[in-house]
Amino acid sequence: MFVIFVQSNKHIGDNSNIEVLADNDIDSDKAEEDVIVKAEKWYQQSCSLCHGSELEGKLGNPALIDIKDNYTLDKVYKIIIDGTGDMPGGFLQGAEARSVAEWIIKNN
Ligand code: HEC
User: Fold this and answer.
1) Pocket lining: 107 vs ligand 1, CB cutoff 6 Å
2) Which of 5, 29, 48, 107 stands 20 to 30 A from 36 (CA)?
């Protein structure tokens, strides 16, 4: 969509590339926001049952507050994929797991 827009601008000799770039920046900000909203939704669907909707821990499962003091983003991602101790892996996969790991780190 973006590429088509730029090409058609060139075609008609319109030099509004700066405007096009600005539009694209706004789109990527929005895309980032969407990912954050989705990550929270995925967390609530797949993790909150055990870890609580506020990361506070639940039913004897550990809280995920201050997790960044103990784990890197990659380690949290790996825990989601592979599980750890009594927690099985695979509640989320791939990009969803990655987004939720980032969301947890950022929310601490
Ligand atoms: C069925 C319950 C359950 C679900 C669902 C679950 N977990 Fe866990 N999680 C656990 C348990 C139990 C542990 C502690 C494992 C251990 O150390 O034996 C744990 C540990 C963790 C840890 C390490 C915490 C620490 O302080 O060592 C992270 C990070 C984590 N879970 C993230 C997640 C994420 C993200 C999700 C959703 C994708 C998720 N968990 C879903 C039960 C669950």
Assistant:
1) no
2) 5
Instruction: Take residue 91 and report the two structure tokens written for it.
Output: 């509640």
CA of 53: how far to CAs of 12, 46, 71, in Å? 53, 10, 20
Q: Give pLDDT tens digits for 25-42.
A: 667 788 888 888 899 999
**Ligand 1 contacts CB of residue 92 (under 6 A):** yes
Domains of the chain, first to last: 31-106 (1.10.760.10)
In one-letter notation, the amino acid at residue 78 is K
Residue 77: CB partners within 8 Å, gap ≥ 6?
A: 97, 98, 101
Distance 51 CA to ligand 1 centre (A): 7
